[in-house]
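Example 3.2
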Amino acid sequence: MKQGNISSRAIKLIKSAAAAGAVPLIFIYVLVAKPDFYLINWLGHIVLPVAHTVGNVITWPVRALGESVENIYDLSNLRSENERLRGEIDELRAMKNTCDVAISENRRLSNELDIVHATPQSVIMADVVHDTVALHHSNFLINKGVFDGVKRGMVVTSVDGVMAGMVVDVGGDFSRVRALNDADSNIAVRIAGDEVYGFLNGDGSKFPEIGLFSRPEFKAAKGMSVITSNISGVLPNGILVGTMKNEHEVKVLLPDAISRVKVLEFDTNNEYK
């Protein structure tokens, strides 16, 4: 029963398609054999819509296939573009993570070292021209003096900011700097990252000793950073002096290890601006 219904429907569909296909043929026959323009005009209003509909029906599979191919091509391009963008996003996220880690590490180290990074009021670059080590005294000369703005009491550091000494005598175009290990050197210091204060006393040796007084129970350990303290009102706060060699001795910068220095001037509050 069902097969009969399907067959009859198929036959009707074929007849309809044949009739639709015959309409353009009739139109062409009238146009060639009997050129009646009124009839042609009337048939045109019927044939053209029918032909357009039939054409759409016949070409629908082809157009659908073409659209599918185009969509597949666009989809492939989108997937490729998405993969590329995902890769770039992953790279940017990795770079951001690296930057975040670096920033966090820099903050942590800055907090631990407790070192000042700001620029002082003035910086005078100078070269070490001579160093003098005799008995318990350790000094060196630099090629800048009064004519260059150097004053007695100014702080001298290495190019990378490690303290080397203080200016004790000034001439026209030279100055004498007392090194940290000189027997007459006695500067206020602090353990970086902690409120432990003391004084670094020079004795002529390579590793001057530190005397801590604010917390007598505190035990300094090797590698701890020592920075200047402004408790004496002489030095600015936060310049790196050296690192602990052991519980008492400090590894400082010696004159024979430097060739170029910075002479710093700080404000009246003993802090860098």
